[in-house]
Design brief:
Blueprint (H helix, E strand, L loop, with lengths): L2 E2 L5 E3 L14 H13 L3 H12 L3 E7 L2 E7 L5 E7 L5 H13 L1 H8 L5 H9 L12 E4 L8 H16 L2 H6 L4 H17 L9 H10 L31 H20 L18 H10 L16 H11 L3 H23 L7 H13 L8 E4 L2 E4 L4 E5 L5 E7 L2 E4 L7 H26 L1
């Protein structure tokens, strides 16, 4: 970007055509174009200006306080002078802005690096200082006699968005402060703050204690809401953008609200399928299983958003790299132990050395000799001979209960450090199911 001029006026050489690229890359460049789109009454003129700017029809741009100017050429090469006016900030607002800019070292460093921190702009707006233009702030002037934004002033605004991307001080010049003056005032204020005497650290203890006794008591802790809030409805008459699925977004919003509610209610630890320690660094497949766990009804656990429809479950199954039956099995493993439970379900390993010695010692001491079940070892899996029960040893030394169901080994509970406890969990689950089956047969009879 080549420019020249005095401190209060800068002229930028015409830019080459911008085919195949967006006019604004920075957030403040987008805000500038939004002000144009919100101000112009005729959207067709905005589109015409975009085409002219993209084709390189805008000549050199002159920027000075309160105004930008350029010659814009129609398709037939007819030249028009286009101006866009922007109100300058009065001195008192500039003084408040400069005070805000030196309050935080990060703001000053960002400005020196030609960056416009969004929090600085927000703080300035809260103080009544609007740096970025809003609706109606970009006032057009063109010799084509249009009374609103025409294609020429719109083209000028689009090109200025590219200039703003490269140097946000173009905007500050339009608002009334050139770069040299601005930096000089910022450095003067920063130096004055650095030279100010430091305030004494702390206060007198007796005074602090006396003031504390006069303070009112703290208010009671707010009671959490009875249930999570409803997510926003994303169903509109407008077709979603490519790649966006409103139903999936609604589910994620509901799932997030339910998770936040459990945290707020202090009951997160009670959710059998919720393992916060495992939620960082998950693979895509593991995270799909975690999300699916919130869709399945669980005994004694609260599902965050009810059962999702088949489309969502199919999408999660694809994300997890499983079919629906495998996803259901993986969800049971996640409920039992998060990512660790999932690993024990799907990954086998062979204990050796110290791990083998500890495993055999744990199995030997778990039962009296006459009560010890007959186990067949394969890798980290010990299967009860003649029964549909199995123990799996995790890498952390804990034992996981499994039972065989419809030809597949299914996780049936949380891990235990004692193999006898884990096996009792597997056997208890089986006996409970058998009792339910017997009752069903009796009812049928």
């Amino acid at each position: 970007m080549n420019d020249h001029g005095t401190e209060t006026e800068r002229t930028f050489a015409a830019l080459p055509p911008a085919r195949g690229r967006a006019f604004a890359q920075t957030w403040w460049g987008h805000a500038w174009l939004k002000a144009l789109e919100d101000t112009a009454l005729d959207g067709q003129q905005v589109r015409t200006g975009r085409r002219l700017a993209r084709s390189g029809a805008v000549g050199a741009v002159t920027v000075r306080p309160g105004r930008i100017t350029a010659v814009v050429y129609d398709q037939d090469r007819t030249a028009h002078r286009a101006d866009v006016l922007l109100e300058q900030l009065p001195d008192d607002r500039w003084a408040r802005f400069l005070d805000l800019a030196v309050e935080r070292s990060g703001y000053l460093a960002a400005l020196l690096d030609r960056d416009l921190p969004p929090h600085l702009v927000e703080d300035a707006s809260a103080a009544g200082i609007e740096l970025l233009p809003g609706i109606g702030d970009l006032e057009p002037r063109c010799d084509c006699d249009a009374w609103d934004h025409c294609g020429h002033t719109s083209a000028l605004c689009h090109l200025v968005a590219r200039l703003l991307d490269q140097d946000p001080f173009v905007l500050l010049l339009m608002r009334g402060r050139d770069e040299r003056t601005l930096f000089g005032e910022l450095r003067a204020r920063d130096a004055a703050r650095s030279d100010a005497p430091n305030s004494p650290e702390g206060v007198d203890a007796a005074a602090a204690y006396a003031a504390g006794r006069a303070l009112p008591p703290l208010p009671p802790v707010p009671v959490p809401p009875a249930e999570p809030g409803l997510p926003p409805s994303l169903g509109t008459e407008t077709a979603p953008a490519p790649g966006l699925d409103p139903a999936a977004l609604e589910f994620l919003a509901a799932h997030t609200a339910a998770t936040a509610h459990r945290w707020l209610d202090g009951a997160r630890e009670d959710a059998p399928w919720s393992h916060p320690a495992d939620e960082d660094g998950l693979t895509v497949a593991q995270d799909a299983v975690r999300l699916a766990a919130g869709l399945f009804e669980s005994d004694g656990g609260a599902a965050p958003a009810g059962r999702a429809d088949d489309v969502l479950l199919d999408r999660l199954a694809i994300g997890a790299g499983r079919d629906r039956a495998q996803l259901t099995r993986a969800v049971r493993a996640w409920r039992a132990g998060g990512a660790a439970g999932l690993s024990v379900l799907e990954e086998g390993w062979t204990p050796d050395g110290e791990a083998q010695v500890r495993a055999r010692a744990a199995l030997a001491s778990a039962w009296d000799e006459e009560d010890r079940p007959s186990l067949r070892a394969t890798g980290n899996r010990w299967t009860v001979i003649g029964a549909a029960h199995q123990l799996r040893l995790g890498q952390d030394g804990r034992w996981w209960p499994f039972r065989k169901e419809n030809g597949h080994w299914e996780p049936v509970g949380a891990a235990a450090h004692d193999p006898a406890t884990a096996l009792a969990t597997a056997q208890g689950t089986t006996e409970e199911d058998a009792t339910e089956e017997d009752a069903t047969r009796e009812d049928a009879t």
